[in-house]
Fold:
Amino acid sequence: MMKLSLTKEERKDVNTIFGRGLTVMAEMTYVRMQGPGFGWTMMPLLRKIYQNDEDYYAALERNMMYFNTNPAFLPFIQGIVYSMEKENAKQPMENINESVNGIKVGLMGPLAGLGDSFFTGTLRVIAAGVG
Structure:
């Protein structure tokens, strides 16, 4: 088993994302689905890596676009997007909007199908059978 070593500050960042991610279904809209919730979960970390207001608001707008997946896989996608945003803060990329939205769109569909079929189909049936 591989042990992941995080600094105390990185562990705090991970806990922040996870804690805020638990409320992602509460911030749903009909137009952007979980997009506002995804952006809200990323707000404190985006503020930490983007000191300039212009860059921060651009990143926030980028992370509040349409998004919809199974909430169980939200931390996985958030971690990938956060690492992309950290790299962009160090060395700005010209196509960061397309990259972030592309990875979110590319992962949200398959992970939603996997999570929905497992949690609402398989797990519920097994739990009912055991009960």
Q: What stands out?
A: Helices lie at 8-21, 35-49, 53-62, 74-90, 96-130. The mean pLDDT is 88.
